[in-house]
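Milestone 3.1: sequence recovery, worked example.
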């Protein structure tokens, strides 16, 4: 098991796709920063024009906290799509290159092998979110400084700088739970499909459908509260003024359970499937 973990870590560090993923996320951040730097003030003025007639705003609302909130919104589609493509490749590349058969000829149990793959998918997700968090904090605060955060979720919510920073940190943690769910799902799809291009297409389709189902109104039923697409936006609930911690923590626990379920399904299928 330890040798498998070391081998997978080495693969992750050496493969170019890991750095392409980090580069793609860094590019998204840089583009957001550039757009905010050159056009952010104009957009904010348009959004707050009516409010400025009734309220006095001191300081700049275009600050590092707002930039980090905007970057967080890439968790809806851009970041999970990149992560799902890279993560599924951890297994589909093994099928394509024929190395999976070689590994299975050694004294390696199929359950151990696939559990290590899932473990690497989770580790990769955590590392990417940490990279995203650290680079965003560094760049956003260095360029735009600190300040109060204004967010529109049903109504305008204002948060002082320290409160905004804490909410953003918790949002990255909650967002990581959603990204882990997407990634272990892509690994399970890779077990089922084997071919990389087909796995990418189905993973992207799963992501699109999940986002569409998130917007469907199912009412305040028990099914709606337990349905996994309704849990994906839990990080966004940290920007509602009155925090419902019970719901936030409960949703993240449910996402963890869905991730475990996906791992169990994938492990069972891989264990029963012929390697070929």
């Amino acid at each position: 098991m330890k040798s498998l973990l070391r081998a997978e870590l080495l693969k992750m560090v050496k493969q170019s796709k890991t750095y392409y993923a980090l580069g793609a996320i860094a590019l998204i951040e840089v583009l957001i920063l550039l757009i905010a730097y050159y056009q952010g003030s104009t957009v904010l003025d348009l959004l707050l024009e009516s409010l400025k007639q009734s309220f006095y705003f001191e300081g700049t609302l275009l600050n590092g906290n707002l930039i980090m909130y905007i970057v967080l919104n890439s968790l809806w589609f851009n970041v999970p799509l990149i992560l799902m493509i890279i993560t599924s490749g951890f297994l589909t590349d093994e099928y394509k290159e024929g190395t999976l058969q070689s590994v299975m000829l050694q004294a390696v149990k199929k359950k151990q092998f696939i559990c290590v793959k899932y473990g690497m998918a989770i580790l990769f997700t955590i590392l990417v979110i940490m990279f995203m968090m650290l680079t965003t904090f560094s760049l956003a605060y260095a360029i735009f400084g600190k300040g109060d955060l204004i967010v529109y979720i049903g109504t305008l919510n204002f948060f002082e700088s320290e409160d905004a920073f804490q909410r953003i940190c918790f949002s990255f943690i909650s967002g990581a739970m959603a990204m882990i769910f997407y990634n272990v799902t892509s690994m399970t799809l890779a077990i089922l499909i084997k071919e990389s291009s087909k796995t990418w297409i189905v993973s992207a389709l799963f992501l699109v459908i999940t986002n569409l189902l998130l917007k469907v109104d199912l009412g305040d039923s028990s099914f709606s509260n337990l349905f996994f697409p309704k849990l994906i936006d839990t990080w966004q609930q940290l920007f509602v003024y009155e925090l419902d911690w019970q719901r936030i923590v409960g949703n993240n626990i449910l996402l963890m359970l869905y991730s475990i379920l996906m791992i169990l399904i994938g492990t069972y299928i891989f264990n029963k499937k012929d390697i070929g």
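The chain has one domain: 2-272. Residues 2-272 form one domain.
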